[in-house]
Design brief:
The protein has 2 domains: 148 residues, dinb family like domain (Four Helix Bundle (Hemerythrin (Met), subunit A)); 278 residues, paralog of FGE (formylglycine-generating enzyme) (Alpha-Beta Complex). It contains 9 helices and 12 strands. A 4-stranded mixed beta sheet has the order 10-9-8-11. The relative contact order is 0.15.
Length: 446
């Protein structure tokens, strides 16, 4: 069996150019998200689930300082006195507004100073000789970290109760798909990666997984389909819910529809980045928890895919038996492939990105909405924590469910066919939806 693509043979100059591009793109986005509101808004906490925007801004600068200025560059600290304030493991999000955080002007000045030093480190680093330096890994890790916080800041914008401050054009229109579901043949495939230069520790190592045949939805479940679940009493029937999900549904007052939805008469409305609009039936449903996704799947006579099933549908090429980097091939995502990078402020309708489909005909596995899987978050066989246990290892266990594929708010640098996200099964503020799977009936698998 062939496996993942080999490491690209790039010179240090190529890596320097690549790093400069992704770091600049991340910082431009951080600036957009923080400059869009006034200083009072930056220091306000819009939900106990989220940090004030100004905390995220200084935190990405602090992580950049720790890894690239001090570790890779070996330079003196810029602001060692603030390390404890921006250590995400020391302070819960709900407690961060009470900390003596850097104010907006000071935070902006700090991240600028750190970035100036980082660009100097980049220019002079040999980009070899240590695992952190090979293929500019530490720089890629920091760029991914900032983009992940940019998506978190975008979710904070969605939680703001104020008027809209962000704008973007709509995504391309959808088109009908030839089939509602796709059969993924059974057999082994290579899951994970040992060659992707900037893959994080939980994506490694590559390993062979034998997956039984299954059907998977050609597109994510839409708002229109989810409305049928609501109208059919899905939130009122415990038989569709797990015991944990049903208990949570009762503990959370008003859990009768996706977050940010409201019914007025016979019409469902939603709030999206400060705009009130009718729920668009053809877009993927979003802002649903794992428990809601699982209940819908049971109501529909289906189930959520496992993480391995999701990745096989996204990466396996039946013609070669090889696992691709992305559903469409090995090239980096472009605007023709997927809805990524906050180019649009909403998920696209099914069929909007035909050039991003997998060889089997599964659409929009990358971008639009994160997709819940049925799998708990664990390390792969042979997992090794790198460069620090707190990135993945401390989260392994049954408390977290794995999400795959990224959303319209994810950047291409932080999304690939092997990328793994995880969250508590009750979370709804993230840009998460789902697609369903099912086992073949006798004779259906060929």
């Amino acid at each position: 069996m062939t496996t993942s693509p080999p490491v690209p043979d790039l010179t240090p100059e190529h890596w320097r150019s690549r790093v400069a591009e992704v770091l600049t793109r991340a910082r431009d986005r951080s600036g957009l998200l923080t400059d869009a509101v006034d200083d009072d808004d930056l220091v306000r906490q819009h939900s106990p689930l989220m940090s004030p925007l100004v905390w995220d801004l200084a935190h990405v600068g602090n992580q950049e300082e720790l890894w690239l200025v001090r570790d890779v560059g070996g330079l003196a600290p810029v602001r060692q006195d603030i390390d404890e304030l921006y250590d995400a493991f020391r302070h819960a999000r709900a407690d961060r507004p009470s900390l003596p955080l850097l104010g907006p002007p000071e935070a902006r000045s700090y991240v600028r100073e750190v970035r100036d030093k980082v660009l100097d480190v980049l220019a002079h680093s040999p980009l070899e000789g240590r695992p952190l330096l090979e293929n500019a890994f530490a720089f890629g890790m920091v760029a991914q970290h900032e983009q992940q916080h940019d998506e978190t800041m975008l979710a904070t914008h969605q939680l703001r109760a104020s008027a809209a401050v962000l704008a973007a054009p709509p995504p391309p229109p959808g088109m009908s798909l030839p089939a509602a579901e796709v059969l993924v043949p059974g057999g082994p495939f290579t899951m994970g990666t040992s060659t992707e230069p900037w893959a994080l520790d939980n994506e490694r190592p590559a390993h062979v997984v034998d997956v039984a045949p299954f059907f998977i939805d050609a597109a994510a479940v839409t708002n229109g389909a989810y409305l049928a679940f609501i109208d059919g009493g899905g939130y009122d029937e415990p038989r569709w819910w797990s015991a944990q999900g049903w208990a949570h549904r009762h503990r959370v007052a008003g859990l009768t529809a996706p977050q940010f939805w409201e019914r007025v008469g016979d019409t469902w409305w939603r709030r999206r980045f400060g705009i009130r609009e009718q729920v668009p039936p053809q877009e993927p449903v979003m802002h649903v928890s794992f428990h809601e996704a699982q209940a819908y799947a049971a109501w529909a006579g289906r189930r959520l895919p496992t993480e391995a099933e999701w990745e096989k549908a996204a990466r396996w090429d039946p013609a070669t038996g090889r696992s691709r980097r992305y559903p469409w091939g090995d090239e980096d995502p472009g605007p023709e492939h997927a809805n990524l990078g906050q180019r649009h402020l909403r998920p696209a309708e099914a069929g909007a990105y035909p050039r991003g489909a997998s060889p089997l005909g599964v659409h929009q596995l990358i971008g639009d909405v994160w997709e819940w899987t049925s799998s708990d978050f664990h390390g792969y066989p042979g997992f090794s924590a790198f460069p620090y246990p707190e990135y993945s290892l401390v989260f392994f266990g049954s408390d977290y469910k794995v999400l795959r594929g990224g959303s319209f708010g994810s950047d291409a640098v932080a999304v690939r066919g092997t990328f793994r996200n995880w969250d508590y099964p009750i979370r709804r503020q993230i840009f998460a939806g789902f697609r369903c799977a099912r086992d073949p009936a006798p004779g259906e698998a060929g």
